[in-house]
Amino acid sequence: MEPPSQQQDPGTRALARSPDYFLFDVHESGRLLFVPVSRRTYAESAFLDHRMTPRPTTVLHRPLREIAPMTRELDPPEAVIAHTSFCASTLFARCIETPNLMVLREPRILNTLANDFRNRPYREVMESDFPRSTWHLLGKRYEPRQKVAVKFTNFTNNLLRPIQAEWPSTRILIMWGKLEAFLVSMLKHEREAGQQLWMFLKAFLMDRGADKSVIQQHLQQPLMQQAAMTWSLQILDLCQLAENNPGTVRTLPADRFLADPLGATRAFHHWLGIDAADDEVETHVRGVMGHDAKTGESADSRGIRSSRDQLRQDKAERIEQTLAWARDQGLVPETGNLDRISLLD
């Protein structure tokens, strides 16, 4: 497949320097694919992938070798939000946005980079221009005073290792939820989980160096056991990250964020050195919490909690059986490393 044809090409320097041209993906030929965006795109898009709002209609492309030298002049993002599945991370990422903080939610290009690390030797990937150019291009901003935070998808948490190695001053916030809450979410989205969960489980096992026979064995397990394993692998990796980097890592459990979203937002701003007026932050957070983080539609949080509580009651036996199995298998690790460096303490 050939890259899409170029339209209204602004020139290589504009692609490399202006946030109005967002690095979307890389073509198999090695050409970087950019799409024209605006401040509205960053603010309104729940995710910076095929679900961008408004949806781009133009794709511009450049060979990586042309762009790479220009990216050395760019500052990389200052912060990362890493997380497990279903822990309100998208909601939090919307809350923390201010004029002084751009938040990039799940850029598609990071999925490609994450798979590159899974499928090629670590050193080989790092010796190429792709990781460094990608990370610096995601740091583009409209104003010098702005900072940039990138919300990962949990599929890309394997990028935390190279981020820490190459950009050790990067602040990393870990968001996570409890296993029971994760299982409830799996049951709420059971059809979707049945179609997609195996891909995440396979990726997380690959990240830990599991061989093909072990991966295949786990993929044959029932859905809820796969879910417990998927949650455990994420928690283990994030606990290790927190233990090894206490100076640059903070944690935020989902239940504590949901109990005090304004306090969590202010704490993150303080940690990152973001100057934001208290009344404006309060108004913004109140508005975010009244809407669905992914669709932007009005949402009744009490109704959402009620439906989850009802599902938890209806599926109590299945949930408890899975929790017991997970405990027997040693899949419920201690989370002390996460608790000790909480953003809110």
In short:
This protein has helices at 12-17, 39-44, 64-71, 89-95, 108-119, 122-126, 130-137, 160-166, 179-188, 190-207, 212-219, 223-244, 254-259, 261-272, 278-289, 301-314, 316-328, 336-339; strands spanning 21-26, 31-36, 60-63, 79-83, 101-105, 147-151, 171-176, 249-253. The protein has 345 residues and is of the alpha/beta class.
Low-confidence segments: 1-6
* Beginning-to-end CA distance, first to last residue: 51 Å
Helical amount among residues, as a percent range? 40-55%
Largest sheet: 5 strands, parallel
Instruction: Work out the strand percent.
Output: 5-15%
**How confident is the prediction overall: mean pLDDT?**
93
Radius of gyration: 20 Å
Q: Order the strands across the largest sheet as they lie in space.
A: 5-6-4-7-8
Instruction: Indicate the overall shape.
Output: globular
**Tally of helical segments:** 18
Q: What letter string, H or E per element, gives the SSE order?
A: HEEHEHEHEHHHEHEHHHHEHHHHHH
Number of strands: 8
Structural class: alpha/beta
Can you give keywords for this protein?
345 residues; alpha/beta; 52% helix; globular; disordered N terminus
